[in-house]
């Protein structure tokens, strides 16, 4: 009981500290400045912006197939066939990045653009050349490329062979990664293996809303998928470490989607603990904890549920001693995606079995939190600070990069709300850096361009650059938020001189 009381006091103190942080920032100008050598930039993903889905010898991806099948699984049955047409307009995009002043640009490689049939026996010369041209153009403009190997666009032919449920996908991913490293590691110093592996698997198998949309495997598919992704990440890291790291002095990290979990009721810190271990510890615990392996709490809860449901063994695959030792330590940094927070309380959701049901939690969001046009995204900046401090405390304060953070809005260049969102969230991050010594090395806006937001189509854009999707030329326009970022990067501070304040800027 004494331990529980201490935990409750700690949580309350963190919350009180967070509610005071905006004032703290205003009182201490140093807290508004970015550290020296801190990377500021923006991020995108291949399927969401490139278009050119069947140009040259590019193979079909699972998102090509998923969107082309229609069935209203994507809002208005929209596709990424053309998207922002960045495949043809990447030089214009980089010119805009340069205009904003970005230090870095995170983008992803399209696996089927590089390996048209998914396997390493056929490499596309055009696909390889496209990314060389993109990287070279970035470097020529003093913008650091940060490359994600996989952002959800698996070659369809590999999905036909079982995709992330087939353990052979580990070898296929290593083969693909080796080709990418051979080509781009001399130029690229930061790689990310997989974007949000746990969320990707949950969206496909527990929710059925992302390609290839296999809801019928809920409760089993998401765990097999993430298990294979974790092993694939580790294999790629060891390969990179042995064959490329020392030669090119680069680094490779793992990506997670980090929400903050608030207990809905007082005296219920256990709910937030469970939610964290399932959502974030699931991927980070085997890599960063001393013990390795999946979190004990997660293993125990899934095993109990599986037994109650009549399964002969836990639906969560077991990591044996070999994999525990092999996976531990396989990341040079954590790439963190963050948007919002949720509340959790004890209770069961209906979909049984499933990742959500196994936690015995019900999630919602406080109706008093500020909303956006995306029903899932509430603006709760203090949650950002809380989760960053928790990650630092839980995993020995490893190097971290914020690789996605942003907010949706109406389809217009006039986006004052986005500026306000960035100001609030960045203040929380800078307090973590300056006061709490959280080891954050960079921040990348999601997203640079308005783009296809997966199952939500084009109607909930996140970009700081407006893209006119009714224009065949996909005309780009810098939004107010892009002009604001231009000043923030110029002064390396959230304190912008009055004569250059964004409020004086009229959106084009």
UniProtKB/TrEMBL annotation:
Name of this chain's protein: beta-glucosidase
Q: Which domain of life is it from?
A: Eukaryota
Per the similarity annotation, which family is this?
Answer: Belongs to the glycosyl hydrolase 1 family.
Which keywords has UniProt assigned to this entry? Glycosidase, Hydrolase, Signal
InterPro entries, per this entry? Answer: GH, Glyco_hydro_1, Glyco_hydro_1_AS
Which residues constitute the catalytic centre? 404
Which Pfam families does the UniProt entry name for this protein? Glyco_hydro_1
Query: What EC number(s) does the entry state?
Result: 3.2.1.21
**Statement: the UniProt record of this protein carries the keyword GTP-binding:** no
Q: Which Gene3D superfamilies is this protein grouped with? A: Glycosidases (3.20.20.80)
Range of residues in the leader sequence: 1-21
Coiled-coil features, chain-numbered ranges: none
Instruction: List the PANTHER family.
Output: GLYCOSYL HYDROLASE, LP05116P
- What is its EC class? hydrolase
């Amino acid at each position: 009981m004494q331990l529980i009381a201490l935990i409750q006091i700690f949580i309350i103190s963190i919350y009180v500290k967070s509610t005071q942080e905006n004032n703290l920032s205003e009182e201490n100008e140093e807290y508004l400045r970015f550290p020296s050598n801190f990377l500021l930039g923006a991020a995108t993903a291949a399927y969401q912006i490139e278009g050119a889905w069947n140009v040259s010898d590019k193979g079909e991806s699972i998102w090509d197939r998923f969107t082309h099948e229609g069935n209203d699984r994507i809002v208005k049955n929209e596709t990424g066939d053309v998207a922002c047409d960045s495949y043809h307009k990447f030089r214009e995009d980089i010119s805009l990045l340069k205009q904003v002043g970005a230090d870095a640009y995170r983008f992803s490689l399209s696996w089927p653009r590089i390996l048209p049939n998914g396997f390493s026996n056929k490499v596309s010369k055009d696909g390889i050349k496209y990314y060389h041209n993109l990287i070279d153009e970035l470097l020529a403009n003093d913008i650091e490329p940060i490359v994600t190997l996989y952002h959800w666009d698996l070659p369809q032919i590999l999905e036909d062979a079982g995709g992330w449920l087939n353990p052979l996908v580990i070898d296929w991913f290593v083969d693909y990664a080796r080709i990418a490293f051979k080509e781009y590691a001399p130029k690229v110093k930061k790689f990310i293996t997989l974007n949000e592996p746990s969320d990707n698997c949950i969206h496909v198998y527990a929710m059925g809303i992302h390609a290839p949309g296999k809801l019928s495997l809920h409760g089993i598919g998401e765990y097999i998928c993430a298990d294979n992704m974790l092993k694939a990440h580790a294999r790629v890291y060891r390969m990179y470490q042995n064959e490329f790291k020392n030669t090119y002095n680069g680094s490779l990290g793992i990506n997670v989607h980090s929400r903050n979990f608030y207990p809905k009721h007082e005296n219920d810190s256990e709910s937030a603990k469970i939610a964290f271990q399932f959502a974030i510890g699931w991927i980070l615990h085997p890599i960063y904890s001393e013990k390795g392996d999946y979190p004990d709490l997660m293993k125990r809860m899934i095993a109990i549920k599986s037994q109650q449901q009549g399964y002969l063994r836990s639906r969560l695959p077991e990591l044996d001693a070999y994999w525990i030792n092999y996976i531990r330590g396989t990341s040079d940094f954590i790439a963190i995606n963050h948007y919002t927070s949720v509340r959790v309380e004890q209770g069961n959701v209906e979909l049984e079995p499933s990742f959500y049901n196994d936690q015995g939690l019900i999630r919602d969001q406080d109706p008093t939190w500020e909303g956006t046009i995306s029903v899932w995204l509430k603006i709760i900046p203090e949650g950002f600070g809380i989760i960053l401090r928790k990650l630092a405390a839980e995993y020995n304060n490893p190097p971290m990069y914020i690789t996605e953070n942003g907010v949706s809005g109406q389809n217009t260049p006039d986006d004052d709300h986005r500026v306000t969102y960035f100001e609030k969230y960045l203040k929380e991050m800078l307090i973590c850096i300056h006061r709490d010594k959280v080891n954050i090395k960079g921040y990348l806006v999601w997203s640079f361009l308005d783009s296809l937001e997966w199952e939500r189509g084009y109607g909930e854009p996140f970009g700081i650059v407006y893209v006119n999707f009714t224009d065949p030329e996909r005309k780009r326009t810098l939004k107010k938020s892009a002009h604001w970022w231009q000043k923030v990067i110029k002064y390396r501070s959230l304190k912008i001189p009055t004569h250059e304040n964004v409020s004086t800027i009229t959106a084009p």
